[in-house]
Design goal:
Elements: E1 20-33, E2 36-42, E3 46-53, E4 55-60, E5 63-66, E6 71-75, E7 80-86, E8 90-104, E9 107-110, H1 114-119, E10 124-127, H2 131-145, H3 150-175, H4 181-191, H5 199-206, H6 210-221, H7 225-241, H8 248-254, H9 260-271, H10 275-282, E11 286-288, H11 291-299, E12 306-309, H12 315-321, E13 327-330, H13 338-348, E14 352-356, H14 361-367, E15 373-376, H15 383-394, H16 397-422, E16 426-433, E17 436-440, H17 443-452, E18 456-457, E19 467-470, H18 472-478, E20 482-487, H19 491-500, H20 504-507, H21 510-513, E21 517-520, H22 522-525, H23 530-543
Parallel strand pairs: 11-14, 12-13, 14-15, 16-18, 16-20, 20-21
Antiparallel strand pairs: 1-8, 2-7, 3-6, 3-8, 4-5, 4-7, 6-10, 8-9, 16-17, 17-19
Length: 560
């Protein structure tokens, strides 16, 4: 292990801190007027997110947190993190990445994977006091970090140890039974949402006045206590509605509503449709084994009973449908953990499984034990044909035909609008991974950008299987009018992108000089389905209407 690190001595629930040492690897200060978006990304380091000013949501792994005052957020190696933070004036966040080393047989080993990361249990949301001291330490660390003086850089490591000590001390104090009274009330709501709860009861649990409880709950969690309770009940109701013999009256009683008609009104206000309509859509226990199947089912207005969900790899479906989909399959890196998914399906007992047919024989054999399976031809059919085949199997052909008619009308309008903006400009989709550039042209891009929208490609996609390596010199020679960037959200790639975007060769590109570089994300651009393609059309219209999102990719020297 190079450089200096210090051992912190304090007991931990999982692994003694006497055997650990810590080293800060990087610190960034993210500042922006208004909203700031941190793209979902996979980390192989421990990450601390310290929000100095702002509110919003963060997702660590598959757990979503509302940003609270006086809290820090920790992500372990092998997990993903991201979110959106807003402020009335200036959003300000410190992002710290650090390594944890464990002492074994007279040497230190870096704990780099998810299993090791969980042994050092600094993860999730941690309330910290005094928080002002924490932000002051972040400011000092950031100031010392890039110093030309190695002694000052050493000082940044020393200061980081102090920051880490405060966080660990606060966590230890709270875990030893001194949890904030407000948290006790919220925890009671989480567990006993079905009781006839009142503000007076909850305030009594928190040992504060009802008026102060109402104000403090809204200020701390960004939602009123009553709205939070309603949200809990409606989400539980959605889960109960997936049961084949569930009755509306019984569901209302189980979640705390004595009057089923009152419950129906609350549900429609919250969800947008009546419980009866929602239950009719949910009753079919259809498992979408792959993400594109989820996209096809949603186009048919069918919410799958089981589907792959993850805040990074299926970001849209996770955000919009995680409370609607009863069984969450693992979406980690395109089905790498398929065996655990089959185990989940065996327990869930869906009526039918729909999958693409690009599985190996062992996976198909094990999947056949779950339920009847309908395979959609993946290579032989295009997405429109796949949608119609799915609809035919489910008896929803009319729904598919109606959807395609509406889509074609939408495409015609979008094509005219976008072409009017871009004229005959040439487009290139550039994928950046690690320290490499690739021309990228998958089936979605070919079908939607260059067929449906009839945009001009700077590269002959017919000669491209999917990716082709390209040097910066080759990119300069090609010199497309507009660039769509698909940047892999992991640390080595983001570090390379920071360097590349301020290099002279990159700045010489016509698209860069004319401010015609646009960021796109893997979701929906890498998914081949009806729902994903409709969202690509929406994104293209948004890109050229001035609605270009502010992203963490715009960083330079730790600032946004």
């Amino acid at each position: 292990m190079s450089g200096h690190s210090f051992v912190v001595k304090e007991a931990s629930n999982n692994l003694s801190l006497d055997d650990l040492s810590f080293r800060l690897r990087h610190i960034e200060l993210l500042k922006r007027n208004g909203n700031l978006q941190i793209e979902q990304q996979l980390t192989f380091s421990h990450v601390l997110i310290i929000v100095v000013n702002g509110h919003g949501q963060l997702t660590l792994g598959t757990t979503e947190y509302r940003i609270q005052q006086n809290h820090v957020y920790a992500c372990i190696p092998g997990e993903t993190y991201g979110g959106e933070i807003q402020a009335l004036d200036e959003t300000e966040i410190y992002l710290l990445k650090f390594e944890v080393f464990r002492s074994t047989d007279q040497r230190y080993e870096c704990m780099v994977n998810e299993k090791d990361g969980r042994l050092f249990s600094l993860q999730g949301e941690i309330q910290v006091f005094p928080f002002d001291q924490l932000t002051s330490l972040c400011k000092s660390i950031f100031q010392y970090w890039d110093s030309d003086d190695e002694l000052e850089r050493f000082r940044s490591q020393f200061t980081f140890q102090k920051l880490l000590y405060i966080i660990l001390k606060s966590r230890s104090f709270l875990h030893n039974g001194s949890c904030a009274a407000l948290e006790l009330a919220k925890d009671y709501m989480d567990h006993y949402y079905y009781e006839n709860l009142s503000i007076e009861q909850l305030a009594a649990i928190a040992k504060i006045s009802p008026k102060y409880f109402v104000d403090l709950f809204k200020k701390t969690y960004g939602i009123s206590a009553i709205d939070y309770l309603t949200e809990l009940r409606i989400n539980k109701a959605k889960q109960l509605m997936a049961q084949s013999h569930a009755k509306l009256k019984d569901i209302a009683h189980q979640i705390g509503y004595n009057d089923e008609f009152y419950f129906s009104r609350k549900f429609k206000k919250q969800v947008g449709v009546t419980p009866t309509h929602y239950m009719k859509r949910r009753r079919r226990k259809i498992a979408a084994y792959r993400s594109p199947i989820t996209g096809q089912l949603l186009a048919l207005k069918i919410i799958p009973y089981a589907a792959p969900l993850h805040p990074k790899w299926t970001a849209y479906y996770y955000k919009e449908y995680r409370t609607d989909i009863s069984v969450h399959l693992n979406a980690y890196r395109n089905g790498q953990k398929w065996e655990s998914n089959i185990e989940k399906l065996l327990q869930a007992k869906p009526e039918v499984v729909i999958s693409t047919d690009d599985l190996d024989e062992m996976e198909k054999e094990k999947l056949s034990r779950v339920a009847p399976i309908y395979y959609i031809p993946w290579q032989e059919k295009n997405w429109r044909e796949q949608l119609l085949l799915t609809a035919e199997f489910l008896g929803e052909t009319q729904e598919a035909e109606d959807w395609l008619k509406n889509y074609d009308r939408k495409v015609k309008h979008a094509r005219e609008w976008v072409k009017n903006k871009v004229k005959d400009d040439t487009f290139l989709i550039l994928r950046i991974s690690k320290q490499n550039l690739y021309v990228h042209c998958n089936r979605s891009i070919t079908d939607i950008l260059f067929h449906d929208l009839q945009l001009a490609s700077a590269y002959d996609c017919n000669q491209l299987a999917r990716d082709e390596r390209m040097t910066i010199d080759q990119l300069i020679e090609l010199d497309p009018d507009r660039l769509l960037l698909l940047i892999r959200q992991e640390e080595e790639t983001l570090a390379y992108w920071k360097t590349l975007q301020y290099s002279l060769p990159w700045q010489e590109l016509s698209a860069v000089r004319n401010n015609q570089v646009y960021f796109i994300s893997s979701d929906p651009w890498l998914e081949y389905s009806a729902s994903a393609h409709e969202r690509i059309i929406d994104e293209m219209v948004s890109l050229f209407s001035g609605n270009r999102p502010k992203r963490i990719l715009d960083t330079v020297h730790g600032h946004i």
